[in-house]
Amino acid sequence: MSVELDEVRRFLSAHEPFSHLPDEELDSLPGKMEIIYVRRGETVITAGQPNDTLYVIRSGAVDVLDSQDVLLDRRGAGRFFGHSTIVTKGGFGAEPGPSRYTMIAVEDSLLLTMERDEVRGLIERNPEVARYFAGVSERIRAAAERLSVRSGSDALRTRVAELVDRDPVSVGCEATVQDAAKLMSRNGISCLPVISDTADTADTADTADTADTAGTADAAGLPPVSGNELVGIITDRDLRTRVIAEGLSTGIPVSDIMTRDPFSTTADTTAFEAMLMMSEQGVHHLPVVGGLDGGGDGVTGVISASDIMRALRNDPIYLTADLAKATDTEQMRSIFNDTAEMTSGFIGRGASAEEVSEILTVGLDSLARRLLVLAEEELGPPPVPYAFIVIGSQARRAVGFSSDQDNGLVLHNSYDEDRDGEYFAELGQMVCTGLSEAGQRLCPGDMMAMNPAWRMTVDQWKDSFHTWVTAPNPDALLHAQTFFDMRPIYGARELADQVHRYSVALARSSTRFHARLAALVARKETPLGIFRGLVVQRGGDYRNTLDVKAGGTAPIVQIARLYALMGGVKAVGTHQRLAQAASTGVLTQKAARDLTEAFNFLKALSLRHQASQLRSGGEADYRIDPDSLGKLDRENLRDAFGIIKSIQTSLAVKYPVRNT
């Protein structure tokens, strides 16, 4: 054996599944492999394309992305990919299957390659290798179960039939692509099940993501459908990649471009089982076939990852039940870490940024409430009524994986510092310290209930807002825009509501205050150059990255706050502020829609980035390298920053900066 082949043999013998092979198999294996070099950024396998090669990473790193460009895994030396298109649950197919994933080199890499026939021979001689490949999928299943079962939520035991649309939409396989696109647009859906035009043609058609009856097709002006057997699925991604990108006519039948024989589930399946299936197969939608208890075999709906997330969001007991029994911060930290881990897994399964942030917010709210209960048990009942408020992103229900604390106390006007001060000082200290120990960092700006400056009576809070709105100094503006995002989560909530109503009414009537807030927005720099180039940091620890929060989500939050206050809107969530500001007429519907879409994209991008950092053992931040993104994400990033710049320009014209 040559020196080079011997080195490859030693490398393979150190990594599973090859480390378990007999010596004679290991001796022959290097001669059946080739070595290739791929540059950073080069795509090795493309989702949707056939692959007949097993790749073993000799050096470098490769990212695994799903069909929506969501990062699922980063694989380094000794790990492999490409096996799932060669070996299926039923063995070897006649032809290599299409890949469900895209594999992109994120470093200059050396890859050992092995062709399909050689892999087949290896597995036939060594069944344990096949079991190892199958175990990869099982590990994905186990990970999904670990992320989900810990919650103890009944939501995941809900049957799929209870979550799907009661009036599903589908299309016949002879309908045109244009017909399908119109139907998807009209119903606001991103996937469409394709059903047989007649009951006896199902074996020639493809399966789809949603279900319908013939009546629905007729109502939409489509050809009548007499069958209801799933034969295919068509998604908005299929329209982009298989029709528009290929320059095909929209008059062709959907059967020409649909995905055939898609994975499906039954109405009796639990949401948990459906979520595991989506995770294992790398899909975000599952057609539902048949009724409850196995009745019928037609398409009855489509279950999506978002449907499951909504079920979880509407059933917060899955988190709060465990926290309500926790007796120390160590237990709380463990529960919240499990929740954060579970939530980071949902990102890769199609959950929206809003849904992920809401679950994280529920977790942080629950932590604070439990700590307040424990504090009152130790200190005794409060001497006067109070409300514990959260500030900033937590108030907006928009926390990420790296959000710190911002909170305070609104005290009843009967509060007396000499009589009651020590109680609330201890309560604030206990809660803020407890939150820190449980995983929510202390605020670097000291905006917390442990700071006496942020423990005030109702009248004192009102006086403070009056000063902030009428005073021109920078500190006043900082406090104003921070504390306009206020939400009570415990205690006498009406005390905080009084303060918030007063502050919104005060701000609405002050055009001078609007101008100051507008100037802050206009001065916020977005990382977009003159010719739509993305501006990154040139040196230091964050070289070649940009801050998606500072230049993206933060200015949108400021814009939404400004227009909401101009319209007297009391909502604190960014989505609600934009929508209600548009309904009052202070913001155009188009601007509200554009800003909402930009915010959703930037928030999703940052959460996806943070989840990846946490999975790799790092600390979450908002610094993203644009070169690490796909082409579509980079274009969307430019569009989002462009929307912000456009609004900033409009505000600069409406409220020109004056030295007053």
Q: In a nutshell, what does this entry contain?
A:
With about 650 residues, this protein is an alpha+beta fold. Helix content is about 45%, strand content about 15%.
How is this fold's topology laid out?
Elements lengths: L2 H11 L9 H6 L5 E5 L4 E3 L7 E7 L2 E4 L5 E5 L4 E2 L20 E4 L3 E7 H10 L1 H23 L21 E2 L4 H11 L3 E5 L18 H6 L10 E6 H9 L14 E2 L4 E2 L4 H11 L3 E5 L9 E6 H9 L3 H7 L5 H19 L5 H27 L6 E6 L15 E5 L5 H22 L16 E3 H13 L3 H10 L2 E6 L1 H16 L2 H13 L22 E2 L1 H18 L7 H11 L4 H27 L7 E2 L6 H24 L6
Parallel strand pairs: 9-10, 13-14, 17-18
Antiparallel strand pairs: 1-8, 2-7, 3-6, 3-8, 4-5, 4-7, 10-11, 11-12, 14-15, 16-17, 16-19, 20-21
Helix pairs in contact: 3-4, 4-8, 4-11, 9-12, 11-12, 11-13, 11-20, 12-13, 14-15, 14-16, 17-18, 17-21, 18-19, 18-20, 18-21, 19-20, 20-21
Could you describe the 3D structure shown?
The protein is built from 21 helices and 21 strands. The protein is an alpha+beta fold. It has four domains: 3-148, Jelly Rolls; 157-313, CBS-domain, CATH 3.10.580.10; 316-497, Beta Polymerase, domain 2; 510-660, Up-down Bundle (Four Helix Bundle (Hemerythrin (Met), subunit A)), CATH 1.20.120. The protein is 46% helix and 13% strand. Helix 13 (417-438) links the parallel strand 17 and strand 18. The protein is globular. The termini are far apart. The strands form six sheets. A four-stranded antiparallel sheet has the order 1-8-3-6. A four-stranded antiparallel sheet has the order 2-7-4-5, with no helix packed on it. A four-stranded mixed sheet has the order 9-10-11-12.
